[in-house]
Amino acid sequence: MTFPNPEYLTHPNIPKPLHGVNPRSIKGKEWWDGKRRIAYSTYDYRCWACGVRKWDADYHQWLEAHESYDINYSTGEVKLIEIIALCHSCHNFIHSGRMMVLLQKGEMEREKVYDIVLRGRYILHKNNLKPYWVTDYLWLILNDREDEFVLPEDANEDNDASWSEWHLVLDGEKHYSPYKNIEEWKEAYR
Predict the structure, then answer these.
(1) DSSP conformation letters of the chain
(2) CB environment 107-122: b (16+ within 10 A), e (fewer)
(3) Per-10-residue mean pLDDT for the chain, 190 residues long?
(4) CA atoms within 13 A on the CB side of 175
(5) With a threshold of 0.90, does the pTM exceed it?
(6) Contact 112, 59 (CB under 8 A)
(7) Phi-psi region of 20 (alpha: psi -120 to 50; beta: other; left: phi over 0)
(8) What is the pLDDT of residue 156?
(9) What residue spans define the domains of the chain?
(10) CB 105 within 8 Å of CB 92
(11) Residue 110 and residue 102: Cα distance in Å, rounded?
């Protein structure tokens, strides 16, 4: 693997059925702390996506751990690839859907969201990579152009696995959604 690897910034958002299903919750704090510390030190406390040293990063001078997954939309299977270390900006860029919700709720300043999305888009553009479609939609919202958004054909949730099929595979075990359906999910996340 090359370092830094801006391709991490193209990671899709976690499918809604698996919100709250993650290795941290399943394996526990001790496991998570061990894995994230290894990730932080792997590249001498630099963000794996952009290469910034933790003490030179914007917003927070620390790294944040992120799970990199292989997501199969037709079967609903999500497999953990690795735990990676990201600066606050790169981590938020990957979680564009979450950032969009925080912006809409007034829990994240528009200027910060704009700065993070602009920075991530610049890194991807420089490396001939494209952001995940939700990030493109957020960019249009930030520029008051959301009416220009066209949902990519491969982003149609009608082609995805059914809600009950989604699962995270961790150490050979399948872990399913804590929510029976989208209505339960909406109630939990409002």
Answers:
(1) --SS-GGGGGPPPPPGGGTT--HHHHH-HHHHHHHHHHHHHHTTSB-TTT--BGGG-SS-SS-EEEEEEEEETTTTEEEEEEEEEE-HHHHHHHTHHHHHHHHHHTSS-HHHHHHHHHHHHHHHHHTT----HHHHHHHHHHTT-GGG----GGG-GGGSPPGGG-EEEETTEEEE-SSSSHHHHHHHH-
(2) ebeeebbeebbebbbe
(3) 93 93 96 98 98 97 97 95 97 96 96 98 97 95 94 74 96 95 91
(4) 19
(5) yes
(6) yes
(7) left
(8) 62
(9) 6-146+160-176
(10) no
(11) 10
Q: Phi, psi (5° rounding) for residue 121?
A: -65, -40
What pLDDT does residue 158 have? 60
Q: Which tokens belong to 103?
A: 């912006």
